[in-house]
Amino acid sequence: MLAVQQLEAGYGESVILRDVTLKVKPGQVVCLLGRNGVGKTTLMKSIMGVLKARRGSVSYKDADITKRAPGERAKQGIGYVPQGREIFPQLTVFENVLLGLEASRQKRRTIPEAAIEKFPVLQTMYSRRGGDLSGGQQQQLAFARALASEPEMLLLDEPCEGIQPSIVDDIRDVIRSIKADGKTAILLAEQSLEFVKSVGDYFYILEKGAVAWEGKLADLNEEVIRHYLTV
């Protein structure tokens, strides 16, 4: 479904990603691990087109999308929940979710029930401004906004960062339900090893902007964790 081949990207004169290759199969939850600063967010931005690739390619459903704009990628079925949420603080919760429809391939005018029922608390806050929500509620809002377009591929960048444990549990349940449904593949970048182990099918570890290790959950042993992830 998603294939990244020998990708190189960075900022200014700095090269952050070097020769990164990975795949996400339909219905699969692939987890991206690594210490802070290794390039996880840079990779997410490059896949979404927010950051241009300097070399290599990004393919989605066998089509090369390397040079396509973020909006085009979204309309092809890629949803994105960025690190830091990036909701619109002056807009209401309802208006924020409604913006997700801009990327809908079905040209929907109403929010699909599946997008909002996963976060029922948001329905009680429709008229509140996004900026008035807690960090965890904003994360749920960003997630619901991405789901509003009914994506077939979902990029989640640090969805558990800085939020309370109860909402982390809610997000875990949502990811598991999406996985069980089998219609949407997920690429998840996350620091919490416990969290990714509970939802992931396949794992990539980045080190110094390159893929240093990949494998299944059974292969993610203590030696690998100590070598690549322990601070």
UniProtKB/TrEMBL annotation:
GO molecular function: ATP binding
SMART domains assigned to the protein according to its UniProt record, in alphabetical order: AAA
Domain ABC transporter residues, every copy: 2-231
Keyword Translocase: no
Superkingdom field: Bacteria
Family: Belongs to the ABC transporter superfamily.
PANTHER family assigned: HIGH-AFFINITY BRANCHED-CHAIN AMINO ACID TRANSPORT ATP-BINDING PROTEIN, HIGH-AFFINITY BRANCHED-CHAIN AMINO ACID TRANSPORT ATP-BINDING PROTEIN LIVF
Stated name of the protein: Urea ABC transporter ATP-binding subunit UrtE
Protein encoded by which gene: urtE
